[in-house]
Amino acid sequence: MAEERGTARVTCTAPVNIAVIKYWGKRDTDLILPINSSLSVTLHQDQLRTTTTAAACRDFTEDRLWLNGEEVDAGQPRLQACLREVRRLARKRRGDDAAAPLSLSYKVHVASENNFPTAAGLASSAAGYACLVSALARLYGVEGELSEVARRGSGSACRSMLGGFVQWHRGERPDGRDSVAQQLAPETHWPELSVLVLVVSGEKKAVGSTAGMQTSVDTSPLLKYRAEVVVPERMTRMARCIQDRDFEAFGQLTMQDSNQFHATCLDTFPPIFYLNDISQRIIALAHRFNAHHGRTKVAYTFDAGPNAVIFMLEDTVDEFVEVVRRSFPPNSNGDQFLRGRPVGTAVLPEELVSAVVVDPVPGAIRYILHTKPGPGPQLLDDPSQHLLGPDGLPCRSA
Ligand code: DP6
User: Which residue among 16, 17, 21, 23 has the greatest number of ligand 1 atoms within 8 angstroms of its CB, and so is best to mutate?
Assistant: First the structure.
């Protein structure tokens, strides 16, 4: 990728992932080593993605970073850790090759943008660091095991280095070499699996994951029990549900694990609340919907914020979207309520409406994003898609 002279530039995209067995808690905060393994579904980049350009040039005088068009501090330890690790791998790979195209001593410029609101609880740091590491690795010609590097940016970012269904092994080693992500199955494994993101708030979360999980590690006995006893068994079970494409079992375990994660937040002292009143209404709605159908047709999960991610099979999407629309009638503020993949219309039977749609709350959901499992990071070949120009400065504002 490196250009012989001038500025070398590489642009990649990377996906968001949503954990169905949650990561919460570190045993090593510097290396970002988790107290338990976790398992996630990578979401499709057609709907949610980060795009990052990494550039290096002899003339750059300092590392610089632009996020969504705004310059921010490039000295942050996690960014520098990723940069250091990619360079270390590049050095190892090159050995004494003096003819290597790009000097490892050059400073880098990085520009990154999301096509979704940052810090809206949509795992922007996971996609962000996965994208950064993918772009830097390409820039320096590094291949192979990179989830370990992405992990140094943000724990959950290691899972965004792969598509489909991904597990992040806790690992045993103190140096973290075995704390890596692994693909369980590609996104094509379960084509009927559909995902709705219900965006209830674009506001920044109250307590960030990094600080929140540390307080949980320090104070929650439930979290300790979860990591030692509950998660190991659930990892095995969840992998089997996915292998068998058993939606009911997958859905139940997904909901239970989300609920236990939020229970550990409540067990943290002082307690942390990520779910709000609307999140709780979505949970109740999902259970009424499933009870009405007499089986698990939809499954919610929530990360460190109030937005819901809901899994279902394709044949349930139209009906459930209509149920959500009836339960949270959209404000006609010009915002598009339904985004992403197309959704068909559904006429709801009267008995479904009376059993499931109770006490509607107008305007409580800003929009619904329809997506599905998708692939891992991608390289963009078209130079017109670089976010940094040949001068190493942002081409356009976000
Ligand atoms: C609730 O990966 O954001 O989304 O490693 O400190 O950067 P750091 O935390 P982060 O935590 C994500 C927590 C979660 C659950 C999950 O994604 O597994």
Answer: 23
Model confidence at 95, pLDDT cuts 50, 70, 90, reads confident
Instruction: Give the tens place of pLDDT for each residue, 301-352.
Output: 999 999 999 999 999 999 999 999 999 999 876 668 999 999 999 999 999 9
Out of 4-13, 344-353, 361-370, least confident range:
4-13
Distances (CA, A) of 22 to 39, 57, 217, 297: 7, 40, 14, 21
Taking all residues of the chain, what is their mean pLDDT, rounded to a whole number? 93
Please tell me the distance from the alpha carbon of residue 119 to that of residue 205, in angstroms, as a whole number.
7
Beta bridge partners of 388: 394
Please report the atom of ligand 1 found closest to the CA of residue 125: 3
Q: Residues 6 or more apart from 193 whose CB is under 8 A from it?
A: 41, 245, 247, 311, 313, 314, 372, 373
Question: pLDDT tens for residues 143-160?
Answer: 888 999 999 999 999 999
In terms of Cα–Cα distance, which of 99, 97, 101 is closest to 141?
101
Per-residue burial over 77-115, b = 16 or more CB atoms within 10 Å of its CB, e = otherwise: ebbebbbebbbebbeeebeeeeebebeeebbbbbbbbbe
Strands 165-168 and 17-21: unpaired
Compute CA distances 276 → 108, 240, 302, whole Å: 41, 32, 11
Ligand 1 interacting residues, C-beta cut-off 6 A: 19, 22-24, 32, 38, 125, 154-156, 209-210, 303-304
